[in-house]
Amino acid sequence: MNSMIFRKINNILRNLKDAKIIEILYLFQDESPIAGDNVLKITLKTNEAKYLIYIPGYFRIRTESEILLTSVDMYINTDNIYDVERDPYNKEDFEKSIMPTRIANAFNLLKDTKVFRAFARKCGDLIFEFENDVKIEILIDRRWNDTEFYRITNTAGGNNIFYSAKFEDGLLRFCESKVSDGESKRDI
């Protein structure tokens, strides 16, 4: 693990205290800054900056007693039937799932609530705790090489640097990268 980058990620997350969520969106491959992946995009705003968090991996938004939204909701249709045949890259399948409603409900619950605490665990997970006891958990759930689990970008001052967690050579790596010319600069 790159401890210097891990510390930078935790410093960024500490800066999110009192930030508010201004948007939660599900982006498909053609809209995503992470090539080849659909992502959940969470936008947080502080007094100084806007932060974008892209999550192509496993996440959940929960209270102590209820799961409000998870990445698996894409596979549950509106009749509450789990359907493994769903194509996660098909917008029609997405619209027929419970995910759009769950995203809207989670956003409505969080939009006027401040971040109480945010931090990264050494295993790579990110945790955001809100004043109303809702938590967003971005969880590392597999160990494939070149798998990116999340990306955090601070948009202040035209910053093209992003931080991510991914596996390389079987090890969890925290990375600091600059958006390249060949990569989408959408939302950055």
Descriptive account of the structure:
By secondary structure, the protein is of the alpha+beta class. It has 3 helices and 11 strands. The chain has helices spanning about 5-15, 90-95, 100-110; strands spanning about 20-25, 40-45, 50-55, 60, 65-70, 115-120, 125-130, 135-140, 150-155, 160-170, 170-180. The strands form 2 sheets. A 6-stranded antiparallel sheet has the order 1-2-3-9-10-11. The chain has a 5-stranded antiparallel sheet with strand order 5-4-8-7-6. A hairpin with a 5-residue loop joins strand 6 (about 115-120) and strand 7.
Summarize the structure.
This protein has helices spanning 3-15, 91-95, 99-110, and strands at residues 20-27, 39-45, 50-55, 58-62, 67-70, 115-120, 126-130, 135-139, 148-154, 161-168, 171-178.
